[in-house]
Amino acid sequence: MNVMLFFDNVGMEQEKAIKTLAREKYLMVMGPDCGTAIVNGMPLGFANVVRRGGIGVVGASGTGLQEVTCLIDQLGAGISQALGTGGHDLHEDIGGISMQFGLEALAGDPDTRVIVLISKPTCC
After folding, report:
1. Which segments of the chain does DSSP mark as H helices, in order?
2. Measured between alpha carbons, how far is 88 from 60 in angstroms, rounded to an integer?
3. For the purposes of burial, counting CB atoms within 10 Å of the CB of 40, is it exposed (0-12), middle (13-18) or buried (19 or more)?
């Protein structure tokens, strides 16, 4: 089963192991430290209710996902899916495992016509 992991007290080595195992099973781990997603029109965590449409979003920043999906809605377009990866996913030690999975999932989603990627600086 795909997982949205809100809890953020997971070490990098453990996060990589969890995400690698999920990837081998063709599943996505959103998180750790993921508090925002919209899946098939259903807002999860700190997501907002926005109109459905053809724009898919995958992002390492929950606040970035919230802002972009709300702006898209305010401009009259809609969201197919919005997938949070967790704040450490793009760190060199993790390698963007969930980001890559999210991009592939959106590319294969018949309701997604445009993909937006939201990054954030990683450190430490």
Report:
1. 12-24, 62-74, 97-107
2. 8
3. exposed
Query: Contact, 122 vs 89, CB < 8 A?
Result: no
- pTM of the predicted structure, to 2 decimals: 0.91
For residue 105, give both structure tokens: 């999932």
Annotated domain spans of the chain? 3-118
In tens, the pLDDT along 92-117 reads 999 999 999 999 999 999 999 999 99
pLDDT single digits (tens) 52-69: 999 999 999 889 999 999
Query: Any residues with CB less than 8 A from the CB of 107 and at least 6 apart, and which?
Result: 115
Other C-beta atoms closer than 10 Å to the C-beta of 17 total: 12
Q: Which fold has domain 3-118?
A: Rossmann fold (3.40.50)
Q: Is 82 exposed, middle or buried (0-12, 13-18, 19+ CB in 10 A)?
A: buried
